[in-house]
Design goal:
Elements (H helix, E strand, L loop, with lengths): L3 H29 L25 H11 L2 H37 L6 H9 L5 H17 L1 H11 L3 H13 L2 H15 L6 H19 L1 H15 L7 H18 L8 H10 L3 H33 L20 H16 L4 H17 L10 H17 L3 H9 L3 H12 L4 H8 L7 H13 L11 H8 L9 H21 L5
Helix pairs in contact: 1-3, 1-5, 2-17, 3-4, 3-5, 5-6, 5-16, 7-10, 7-14, 7-15, 7-16, 8-9, 9-10, 9-11, 9-13, 10-11, 10-21, 11-13, 11-22, 12-19, 13-22, 14-15, 16-21, 18-19, 18-20, 19-20, 20-22
């Protein structure tokens, strides 16, 4: 065992390192502030405002934009610090447990380590982008003043998507909705005698495709909750666990492409490019279904022995079945479905969406005897994650747009897939609508790459944080960003091949 006195300098150094990591961008920006000039207080110009259409070379364009608006550089540096942080959360949580155990050895079994709590907070992936909003706003104020920084968050940033995810996740995670979804999916699982393998296949194929009709966040919530009960509760090995997680995230990302309103990256371009559900199902939807079926088949063939070794717990193993202890009347389930339908129909009407959410909370209070462990904490944390992401993402168009605008179709598809891993795929497709030179083929390539890459990281697709929040407890020290990436690579490659090979098919 390491002596606590010897470990103290190391802990102090770690704490200092975190403080420096969080504070360095702001400190450098403060040092650079005098060079800006006294009267400069406007926000970053629009893409047209840079007036660099005549410039040749990507590097020249980016350098010009930094010269026009130096804050661009700092906003992107802080953004990439946040991305790096997401890959370190697994390590932070492990360190938090180590520090907590050592503190209790010295102070007693009930002692709480402040350093351990700090690193536990830094290890909460839902808080990462919110944490990095603090230095971002600090630098923002140094460059542009408090009023401009506040105006950016209050007026420029669109929080509709995070709020919608909170609302739909809250409704979809209730007992009546889950019971209805489980009964519907059980009809298919019975074809495989309701074994863990049968549930695994149904939840990773049919479940994500439901996202085209009930929205991707709702499909993610339902599939993740049922996978938690039907699969992860049986303690599969870590390799199978991460493979399933990556497959789920990729399948949900592409499963919403049968319609024009369910997948966030499609929603961002549907009006601007005139895409409707008929266009989506012929150009994307059926290819997504084929890709999902192929990816699930490949993983099943590879893991079939491990899947076959999973044994469902007998009914007697639990004292009371959580979904049959109190029969749910039809009117209660119907009420939940109406609230879910209201949320979907008003997904872009923020005030109406929030009023519906408050009304729903009152309805839950009235029907509390038919609920079980109802809580808004996981949806709120997911909303916090997405809110921080859109705050950062709105300041990245200065470099993403010129990268995407200067590529051919094939390169664009792979670039969109790669960039999606570092930014929400809805932000990627939105930026594509700002490029006036996009051909129909380039539009297809951008959206195909964005949805195919939506499972590579937690930040790649808006519903992913919901899945991470629900399933994270089944992984030691939380979900590893690297483990998720490795689990999603093969399904991503399969979907990319489907979109490429069937590109010319109507």
């Amino acid at each position: 065992m390491i002596d606590s006195r010897a470990a103290a300098p190391w802990r102090l150094a770690a704490l200092v390192g975190v403080v420096l990591l969080l504070g360095t961008p702001a400190a450098f920006a403060a040092a650079a502030l005098p060079a800006l000039g006294a009267g400069e207080a406007s926000l970053s110009p629009s893409l047209d405002g840079y007036q660099d259409a005549h410039m040749e070379g990507l590097w020249n364009v980016l350098r010009h934009r930094i010269e026009v608006e130096p804050f661009n550089l700092w906003a992107t540096v802080i953004f990439f610090c946040a991305i790096i942080h997401t890959f370190m959360t697994h390590w932070f949580r492990h360190l938090a447990h180590v520090l907590q155990d050592r503190h209790r050895e010295r102070q007693g079994p009930k002692a709480i380590s402040p350093a351990g709590r700090l690193f536990h907070f830094l290890g909460e992936i839902e808080a990462v982008f919110g944490i990095w909003v603090v230095p971002l706003v600090a630098v923002f104020q140094l460059y542009h003043g408090r009023d401009t920084a506040v105006a950016y968050i209050n007026r420029t940033v669109n929080f509709t998507e995070p709020v919608f995810v909170v609302v739909i996740m809250t409704i979809a995670s209730t007992r009546p909705i889950l019971q209805l979804a489980e009964r519907m999916l059980r009809l298919l699982a019975r074809l495989g005698r309701e074994t863990p393998t049968a549930w695994w296949i149904v939840l990773l194929t049919v479940g994500p495709i439901l996202g085209s009709f009930i929205t991707e966040p709702a499909a993610m919530t339902i599939c993740a909750l049922l996978l938690s009960r039907k699969f992860y509760a049986l303690k599969p090995g870590p390799v199978l666990g991460y493979a399933t997680l990556g497959l789920l995230f990729v399948a949900v990302s592409v499963g919403g492409t049968l319609t024009h309103f369910a997948a966030p990256p499609v929603l961002m371009v549907a009006d601007a490019w005139g895409w409707n559900s008929a266009y989506m199902i012929t150009r994307f939807g059926w290819k997504a279904v084929v890709g999902i079926a192929l990816a699930v088949s490949v993983y099943y063939l590879y893991f079939r022995r491990q899947l076959g070794g999973l044994v469902a717990a007998p009914p007697a193993a639990t004292a009371v079945d959580e979904y049959t202890e109190q029969p749910i009347p039809v009117w209660v389930t119907a009420g939940h479905l109406l609230f879910m339908g209201h949320a979907v129909l008003n997904a872009h009407n923020l005030a109406t969406l929030m009023l519906g959410m408050l009304f729903f909370l009152a309805f839950v209070e009235v029907t509390e005897e038919y609920q079980r462990d109802f809580t808004v904490r996981p949806p709120m944390l997911v909303g916090f994650f997405l809110a921080g992401l859109v705050i950062h993402g709105g300041l990245q168009q200065w470099w993403i747009a010129p990268i995407l605008g200067g590529l051919g179709e094939f390169t664009l598809m792979f670039s969109a897939m790669t960039l999606t891993a570092f930014n929400d795929n809805a932000a990627i497709t939105y930026l594509c609508t700002l490029v006036p030179t996009f051909t129909e083929g380039m539009k297809y390539a951008a959206v195909a790459g964005a949805v195919a890459g939506g499972g590579l990281t937690v930040i790649a697709n808006a519903p992913n944080p919901a899945g991470q929040s629900i399933l994270g407890r089944h992984f030691d020290e939380g979900i590893s960003a690297l483990g998720l990436l490795l689990g999603a690579l093969l399904p991503t490659a399969i979907l990319m091949l489907c979109f490429l090979l069937f590109n010319g098919s109507p």
